[in-house]
Amino acid sequence: MKKVFLITIFLAIASTMIAQDKQGKPSNTTDDEARVEEIIKEMDAQGMKYLPAQPEERNSGLPFLFFLFSGILYFGLCGAAAVVGSSREVGAGWAFLISLFFTPLIGMYIAATSERKTTIEFRKRLTEEMNLQTGLLKKIKI
After folding, report:
1. DSSP labels for the chain?
2. What confidence score (pLDDT) does residue 51 get?
3. What was the pLDDT predicted at 86?
4. For residue 79, what pLDDT band results from cuts at 50, 70 and 90?
5. CA 100/CA 68 separation, integer angstroms
6. Which range of residues forms the domain containing residue 106?
7. Is 42 among the domain residues?
8. Domain for residue 63, yes or no?
9. Is residue 20 part of a domain?
10. 81 with 107: CB under 8 angstroms?
11. Which whole number is the average pLDDT over 44-69?
12. Residue 39 — very low, low, confident or very high, per pLDDT cuts 50/70/90?
């Protein structure tokens, strides 16, 4: 309890000191301006150039946000190509990689134009059935 009391008193004293410094004595601007002009003249005499301080330009962060959202959109479209490719012969992994290295548009095109896995499975079963029927007809010798 004693520590909390001491910390509170310390903070109160520190805040009043800061407030007094802010209100404090007014600076003598004419002396400061004269000193600055004197320094500029000395620099001119020595051949140095005086460049007045420019206000620092703050970066708005818009380029960062643009690239962040562009990247999120790009990876989202690559993911969409992978979803389309998951039920196709090309597969989700290859569709995603093609989209990532080329463009999502090319990845979507390749995924959409490749054959469906169900079509491939149907064709395989149809071929097996045809081979089975051909074998039976050869045994019957028709």
Report:
1. -HHHHHHHHHHHHHHHHHHHHHHSPPP-HHHHHHHHHHHHHHHHHTTPPP-PPPPPPPP-SHHHHHHHHHHHHHHHHHHHHHHHHHTBSS-HHHHHHHHHHS-HHHHHHHHHHSPBHHHHHHHHHHHHHHHHHHHHHHHHT-
2. 64
3. 92
4. very high
5. 16
6. 71-140
7. no
8. no
9. no
10. yes
11. 74
12. confident
Count how many residues are written for the chain. 142
Is 93 a residue whose pLDDT tops 70? yes
- Find where tokens 């620099």 sit: 43
Give the total number of structural domains in the chain: 1
Residue indicated by tokens 């004197």: 38
User: How far is residue 37's CA from residue 31's CA, in Å, rounded to a whole number?
Assistant: 10
pLDDT, average across residues 81-95: 93
Give the pLDDT score at 56: 64
Residues 91, 108: contact at Cβ < 8 Å? Answer: no
At 49, the amino acid letter reads: K
> What type of residue is 26?
P
Q: Which amino acid is at 55?
A: P
| Per-residue pLDDT at 5 exceeds 90 | no
